[in-house]
Amino acid sequence: MREPARVPGEVLVRVRAASLNFPDLLMTKGEYQFKPEVPFTSGLEMAGEVIEADAESGFAPGDKVIGGKKTDAFAEVASVPVRGLSPLPTGLTFAQGAAMGAAYQTAYTGLIELCNVQPEQWVLVHGASGGVGLAACDLAKAMGARVIAATGVADKHDAIKAAVAPDAVITAAGRFRERVADLTGGKLCDVVFDPVGGDVFDESTRCVSFAGKLVVVGFTSGRIAEVATNIPLIKGFSIVGLRAGEYARRFPERGAAINQAVAQLAASGKVTPTIDRILPLSNWQEGFDAMAARALIGKVVFVPGS
Fold it and tell me: What is the DSSP string of 276-290?
């Protein structure tokens, strides 16, 4: 198999592990906002070892790195822009590093960078069994916040508790606002982190406290919700759109600072990614099918081999 050609400004990386993200699944269906020209190699993020790099890049052959771009991580060798790579955090395996990047960068950008989550604040995290949701729960707990993890599948409660030890786990179905109010003593939530959208978003507008923030992360439910503007006006909350990758591209210094902060938290053991399963890349279909069926608790990681 022919290795990709490295161009100036990129780093050639031997991929040791790569994790599956929901946008990877959407891209294969042509349903993501970024639509690569077909045929293409999937994969947003990976971990591996540098093969070749420009001298001024800050990387050298043998360096262990994590990162990626919008595609190409599900390959034996990837050529990645320098700005898309960071050192593998101390103490993490390649599999953990591959599972860490996009999920924790998204969680950090949303919760810390955009919402400035503080100790003792209440944070409601939807999609809490997925990679991004679990990362948001893990990070919010590390910041000292009080976390309500919400999932659409009741039989995932115990697994979520075991993975990230939230203050409570609820099923996000129907009118869950009253459950949130009971847990918070009527205060409701300072931050609601929502990768689900649809009916969950609709009900979440009733779960935000005055001056709180509702973070729009995605629409895994398949329905893009709408909101009457009188609702955030009367309730005094903000709706915050989160595109972590685009944020880092537009504000590269802030993106680098976020990567560094996540790496320090990981190296100190304050956050740890949850991996549902590690599969040889030849079993990619199992991973994609499990994600589509919402059968995961955490990330799927692919490793080379069959």
Answer: EEEEEGGGHHHHHHH
